[in-house]
Amino acid sequence: MKILIVEDDSAIVELVSLCLRVSWPDARILFTSLAEEGIEIAERENPDLVILDLGLPDRSGLEVLKEVRHNSNVPIIILTVRDEEADVVRGLELGADDYITKPFRQMEFVSRAKALLRRQHAADSSGPTTIGQFHFSASRRQVNCAGKTLKLTTTEGKILHNLAQNAGKPVSHGDLSLAIWGEMPPDAANSIRVHMRNLRQKLSDAGLENVIMTKSGAGYFLKK
């Protein structure tokens, strides 16, 4: 397994690397302090997970996020000191799968990284699903409808996969949180709302209007 860390604070790189090696001792840890080099490494090495800071010396981490996400569905965790709601929403809207602020709790960080990789592996081993007028491949994180192909982020794919498994039945924020992260982080509900808005917009752009519905007090459900 390969994990890319794009971070300009050497102490954070060392701490994150230590956390990751405890859980994945055989992992190959790649790191850089530069945004441009991070983009190049992500494209060349095709990592299994990216840990990304936003405050980089040459370019914004959000620019890295946009470019990496454009070319890959790799799970991306933003790890930053920026804790304003606008920054969190922007990061998630641009395709980050999780957003963790510094200083961070090491065990929680590892747990959330594990959850992303575990859910990705589960999706990779599942077959395609047909719901109404569209086909969804969890392994490729793609939706096909009327000749159009939509690329989803890892988290968007997990949300749609979970809704597809429970088609017609409401899935709560708590259940979606467990499916995505394996736990209920304090900011889970807001994060899910942002990911859900992005997912709905992608489906809408492909002509799939009102596929994901909201049932007040119960959660989200996929129309059969």
UniProtKB/TrEMBL annotation:
InterPro entries documented for this protein: CheY-like_superfamily (IPR011006), OmpR/PhoB-type_DNA-bd (IPR001867), Sig_transdc_resp-reg_C-effctor (IPR016032), Sig_transdc_resp-reg_receiver (IPR001789), WalR-like (IPR039420), WH-like_DNA-bd_sf (IPR036388)
Molecular function in Gene Ontology: phosphorelay response regulator activity; transcription cis-regulatory region binding
4-aspartylphosphate carried by residues: 53
Ranges for domain OmpR/PhoB-type: 126-224
Membrane spanning stretches: none
Example of a GO biological process term: regulation of DNA-templated transcription
Protein name: Response regulator transcription factor
GO cellular component: cytosol; protein-DNA complex
Statement: the UniProt record of this protein carries the keyword DNA-binding: yes
Domain annotation Response regulatory: ranges: 2-117
UniProt cross-references to SMART domains, sorted A to Z: REC, Trans_reg_C
Record flagged with keyword Repeat: no
